[in-house]
Specification:
Blueprint lengths: L1 H26 L7 H9 L8 H38 L12 H14 L4 H25 L5 H26 L5 H10 L7 H20 L1 H7 L3 H6 L4 H23 L5 H13 L3 H23 L9 H23 L1
């Protein structure tokens, strides 16, 4: 009975923490807001007795902070559920959404757009297309290597293609103008939410929702994919089709997030581990919980990125500072269990 109560209380606790993190993110920044001002902006944003200070708060809140906060929830949740799906598909707790080269391919696309002086829309479009092309290339090459284990082939080909994409990015950074193009390329590759607008959210929201729905509806099959392919097939699961659906959805989520926010690493790796510590390894609970915890983590990280220093820190720096030690701790813990 107590176990059932604890299991039922965990989603409620996660929702409360998410709401608290959301309020903290909306009220803190270079222009801080009180709780009463936040309530006024949400409930009655267009008042007839609006002062100049109120107009400034409304502009900052609705055009910058509110879209940025929603982006943190959407991107954090999307990268986290994609990471949990990849780890379940590959039966490896040390993989992340970057395993198929999605982030690296999107990085190449974005750098090409910046290098040729394209607008923000085309930079995001190139990043999205680059991520999808990379995954298609990885799957095609892995399919040709039929003599090897399919999962191992995907992982190894993904690592190789990511290395090639990294070389291409480095080459374009060398060729880029050091005063105009190079700073933009470097800042984008570090990841961040500072330039996200309502139009960006509208452009990727349908794609991310389309990708999340199958993952949630079919999440019970992820438990079967954690078994060997022979065992899953004996239980009536079309392993190839199911794995393809999960790969496409997880890739679409990652490419959509990277296309508007740049490369934000480690979220898809560490959040599924934190989730398993809280709700266990059952993917029926792990995938929804990963979304909530990923949204909370990125909300907190983004709030710190714009408040702990005089200048805004790129998210990639903070997520790497947290993710790398966590990754080493996982390695040491795994070795100790053995």
């Amino acid at each position: 009975m107590n176990e059932r109560l604890n299991k039922g209380a965990k989603p409620f606790i996660l929702v409360i923490i998410l709401l608290i993190s959301l309020v903290i993110a909306l009220t803190n920044g270079k222009y801080s807001l009180t709780f009463s001002e936040l309530y006024h902006l949400l409930v009655n944003p267009l008042s007839s007795q609006t002062t100049l200070n109120d107009l400034r708060h409304e502009t900052v809140f609705w055009q910058i902070r509110f879209p940025r906060t929603l982006a943190a929830i959407l991107i954090g949740g999307g990268l986290s559920i994609a990471g949990a799906a990849y780890q379940g598909m590959f039966r490896n707790p040390l993989v992340s959404p970057d395993i198929l080269g999605v982030s690296a391919g999107a990085g190449v696309g974005a750098v090409i757009g910046i290098f040729f002086g394209q607008s923000l829309f085309y930079i995001q479009l190139f990043a999205f297309i680059g991520g999808l092309i990379t995954v298609a290339l990885v799957c095609f090459i892995a399919h040709l290597a039929r003599q090897h284990d399919p999962i191992l082939s995907l992982v190894l080909v993904g690592v190789a293609i990511s290395a090639i994409c990294g070389s291409a990015i480095s080459l374009m950074k060398i060729l880029a103008d050091p005063y105009t193009q190079l700073p933009s390329i470097t800042f984008w590759l570090l990841g961040g939410l500072s330039s996200i607008t309502q139009e960006d959210l509208i452009s990727v929201l349908p794609l991310m929702v389309i990708a999340i729905i199958p993952l949630l509806l079919l999440r019970w099959r992820m438990n079967l994919l954690s078994l060997s392919d022979e065992e899953a097939k004996s239980l009536g699961v079309n392993v190839s089709l199911t794995r393809a659906i999960f790969i496409i959805c997880a890739t679409l989520l990652t490419a959509s997030a990277v296309s508007i926010a740049g490369i934000i690493g480690w979220i898809g790796l560490i959040v599924p581990h934190i989730t398993r510590m809280i709700v266990g390894a059952n993917f029926r609970y792990q995938l929804p919980a990963s979304m909530a915890i990923g949204a909370i983590l990125l909300l907190i990280t983004d709030t710190l990125a714009r408040t702990i220093a005089a200048i805004e820190l790129p998210l990639g720096i903070l997520t790497s500072a947290v993710g790398a030690p966590f990754f080493l701790a996982i390695l040491l813990q795994t070795r100790r269990v053995k």
